[in-house]
Amino acid sequence: MNILTVTCLNQKLFDEYGWKFFDSYNWPFDLRVYSEDIKEMPTAYKHHQLVDLFVETNSKKFVERHKDIPEHNGLGKHAKGPTQAKSFDFDAVRFNYKVYAWTHAILNAQGYDGVICIDADSVFYKPIDTNWLRTHIHRDDTMMTYMGRPNYSECGFLYFNMAHPDTLDYAHSMQSQYDNDHLFNGDDPTHDSIIWDKVRVKYEEKRGTKNHNIGDDKVGHVQARGVLGGVYDHIKGPKRKKLLKSPESQLA
To answer: Which CATH number describes the domain made up of 3-243?
Structure first.
């Protein structure tokens, strides 16, 4: 199996914590990095492919359309509490970058058997190989692998089977949600995890597409509790990023 790993981040996030992703990346798979403002990878990481997100995708157009609409940035009627803090669940602009990066990668993964999409706030500990992937992640008869939770899936890690007949169409459908602003239809949250879920469920219900759920369908840090928690740590949220580790991690 030939596998591509994909992530995305900007310079600010690289300086804050993303450097740890690259310092620790020890998986034997090609790594493609999408960024809207990193124009050149640091010398130590130049062997990884860098893609200009604003040039190669419609992410910039999406940002320009919605950056001044409070409700599409988790503000306005969606702001939380007396401090009017942003609601991540409705911050579509914040999460569009990942959707455009990952779908572009899927649609431009010729020669690869699988695509791993993973958040840049990840720290790698144990190497994995294609045998490990076949045992725990890849299924020949499924389109994608995800971590299910009661409210919405944890989409800091998604895996796509490039041999599945629905994979490319699914990526196009995800892009269409953002290109055509369909994600704003109705009053539902617009967090990218919810959109990945909505489109996935549509494929399951309308086409009978099979997918592989490796989550435990419980709330909280599902990645840390599952099989992926034994090989890398997703340091999601401000507290974990400050520590550069997850208190729940199997690897701490």
So the answer is: 3.90.550
